[in-house]
Amino acid sequence: MRRPFVRALARPLVLAAAAAAIPLVSAAPAAPAVADGIVVGGFPIEAADSPWTVALSSRDRFGGMRSGQFCGAVAVGRTTVLTAAHCVGEDVLGSPPGEVGDLKVIAGRTDLRSAEGQEIPVRETWVNPEYDGISNAGDFAVLTLAEKLPENAVIGMAAAGDPAYAADTRATVYGWGDVTGAGDYPYSLRAARMRVLSDALCEEAYPGGADGTYRADVMLCAGERVGGRDACQGDSGGPLVAQGRLIGLVSWGSGCGRPGSPGVYTRVSDVIQKLGWERAT
Ligand code: 4AZ
């Protein structure tokens, strides 16, 4: 399962909606490692407990059953949201992001069937021009919102050299993505606890192949050595948080929760540097 949501999307959302509506249909987990989902291997959490985790939505493109959710995103300013570049590519959206009339960020909504929280139109989308869809390097985009999010919805970003990036640090990923790797999209927000893994582990797992190439300067490796806890399709663009600070954006990986195939995240310190945000943090 290569990349993001993206490719899979046109097909999956329909399946996703169906699967979510009849949760018991695929009762047997594909493998023990992915028995219980996020995010695979996760647990339910309230949006109020991670208010910076927001959903990226277009009902026109993805249908209304799950509020049009198709990717995750994270608020780093009251009108500034980060997501994955691959989430706002033309292959996902069907047209350039500026031409998607109902592209919105949804904040404060745990259950995508509900109307809780806020829906805020995206006023401007800036996609990293250096994003490389082959290696997946530079997988980030900046969304500017038409209205302000609440002040408590903003999370701080970990700058280069922050100890939160060290291997073995505990980290949590948040999202509404596939909970099994088989296209089971939940209605409610989930989180999964894991650890930052060494660059060596991802370099070994992803030396360069169809899924992507791990590059330690712009990517971050996280999960569990034994597999089982991971982000998955639909979580892309969402936050990986350690020590209360944003360290990663869900980007890619080979499958979900598989031993030996950790999740790969966009390294937030590189985002800060590329955007010239050093002094703002
Ligand atoms: C995806 O397809 C995707 N297990 C996101 C994250 C991971 C794999 C795939 C990491 O969006």
Structure description:
The chain has 281 residues and is an alpha+beta fold. The chain folds into two domains: 51-153, Trypsin-like serine proteases (Thrombin, subunit H, Beta Barrel); 163-269, Trypsin-like serine proteases (Thrombin, subunit H, Beta Barrel). The chain is 13% helix and 26% strand. The protein is built from six helices and 13 strands. The chain has a six-stranded antiparallel beta barrel with strand order 8-9-10-13-12-11. Strand 3 (69-75) and strand 4 form a beta hairpin. The longest helix is centred in the first third of the chain and has 10 residues, at 12-21. It is globular. It starts with a helix and ends in a 7-residue tail after the last helix. The structure holds 4-(aminomethyl)benzoic acid. Residues 1, 3-5, 230-233, 235-236, 250, 252-253, 256, 263 line the site of 4-(aminomethyl)benzoic acid. 4-(aminomethyl)benzoic acid is lined by residues 1, 3-5, 230-233, 235-236, 250, 252-253, 256, 263. Keywords: Disulfide bond, Hydrolase, Protease, Secreted, Serine protease, Signal. InterPro entries: Peptidase_S1_PA (IPR009003), Peptidase_S1_PA_chymotrypsin (IPR043504), Peptidase_S1A (IPR001314), Serine_Proteases_S1 (IPR050127), Trypsin_dom (IPR001254), TRYPSIN_HIS (IPR018114), TRYPSIN_SER (IPR033116). One of its GO terms (biological process) is proteolysis.
